[in-house]
Amino acid sequence: MYKNNKRCFGWLRPAALVLLLGSSKLVMAQSFDRLSIEQCYQLAIKQYPLVRQKALIEQSKQYSLSNAAKGYWPQLSINGQASYQSAVTEINLPGLGVPSMNKDQYRLYAEVYQSITDPFLIKQQKELVKANAETEQQKTAVELYQLKERINQLYFGILLIDAQLLQNKIYKKDIQAGIDKTNAAIANGTALKSNADNLQAELLKADQRTIELTTGRNGYADMLSQFVGEKITTLSPLQTSISENPTTTINRPELKFFEAQKRFFLVQDKLITAKNIPRVGLFLQAGYGRPGLNPLSNEFSAYYIGGIKMNWNFGGLYTAKKDRALLKTNRQVIDVQKDVFLFNTKLAMTQQNSELEKYQQLIRSDEAIISLREKVKTTAQHQLTFGTISSIDYISYVNAEDQARQQLLFHQVQASLARYTLKTISGHE
């Protein structure tokens, strides 16, 4: 029986090593007597440290949008200049005394500039901020979704141990029944005391088995408790809800992540256009200096200038074509990654469907085997009462039924695990 169970737990041991969390200390405020796997998903995602990143991404987005919106505001600048030039313009007209300009000149002025064309650029900058935030949010969602696979392994590991504990209890009951019948046979002189000793030793082995299972169960429960942030009561039964087979469609967060990345590259493409259009704006300049607007005056004076400006930097046009080609290539890369993901996901779903069908067939076979083993064990109990078989023979019959039931329990849990794994792979709740 022990060897058989060791084989059953082989698939859980590697997962347990990976799933061990660090030394993070959790506050377990509440205990759950019954906990569904869906509740485990929700609690794990709610309290996992990575979930805080979603709020930080949203906060960062709002700050960036606020800064981008300030681009609509008029731009104010203050400038000052003091200069000395080696020569100045001189006007010599016969009969006219035109004063010469001073070689030292001073100017202090403020300028207000209101762009007319920048709103289009600012709009694309804001769209880029939103697209980047959405990409980061979807990336976080993908990482959080991966918690479900870890929860599946722990949850169904606990279910398997709970089932084995229950079966071990039934096994001990059968052994105790054999002890009682053997003691009665000894009293009647139809059996040897060694038969009772063999059965008593087997009962002690079953007690050891209970200790092993309980310890293993506590370990899995502690790990699951760290994930969900709530203390799971020792040996509390978990809900074994069986859901319907999920649809064949795929609804994974990775698909939204791929689309978010493509939208990010599309916004970048529009931003290239926005950066390379002419910049047109209104300006108003007011200042004080010598000379003012009258170059023939050597007096300090105030002045103002208003009008419209146009600026067109052609530098970005030189690289715009290649920049767009690069963005197109990046979008194609995302399409390839999406196709690979869908291919692998469909392949995994096909495999899980096969696994589910396999375990459903094995369960039907297990039930037939158990029915036969139970009949043989019942007959052996009567034979043990009359001393026609030894305790060793009886133990072998009980072990045969126990192993058959262990196989059924293992296949039932594996079928449930395959069903929920299929749900996790397809992305359906």
Describe the structure.
It is a single chain. The chain has 429 residues and is an alpha+beta fold. The protein folds into two domains: 2-73 and 118-277 and 317-426, Outer membrane efflux proteins (OEP) (Up-down Bundle), CATH 1.20.1600.10; 75-115 and 278-311. 65% of the residues lie in helices and 11% in strands. It is built from ten helices and six strands; from the N terminus they run ααβααββαααβαββαα. The protein has helices at 2-8, 13-19, 37-47, 52-69, 118-145, 147-187, 193-228, 253-275, 315-385, 391-426, and strands at residues 31-32, 75-84, 104-115, 231-232, 279-290, 301-311. The longest helix has 71 residues, at 315-385.
From the 3D structure, determine the CATH topology of the largest domain: Outer membrane efflux proteins (OEP)
Secondary-structure element order, N to C: HHEHHEEHHHEHEEHH
Number of domains: 2
Query: What does the main sheet amount to?
Result: 4 strands, antiparallel
> Share of helix among residues?
55-70%
CATH level-4 homologous superfamily of the largest domain: Outer membrane efflux proteins (OEP)
Tell the overall outline. rod-shaped
| Total number of beta strands | 6
CATH architecture field of the largest domain: Up-down Bundle
What is the overall number of helices?
Answer: 10
Alpha-carbon Rg, integer? 40 Å
Give the key terms.
429 residues; alpha+beta; Outer membrane efflux proteins (OEP); 2 domains; four-stranded antiparallel sheet; rod-shaped; disordered N terminus
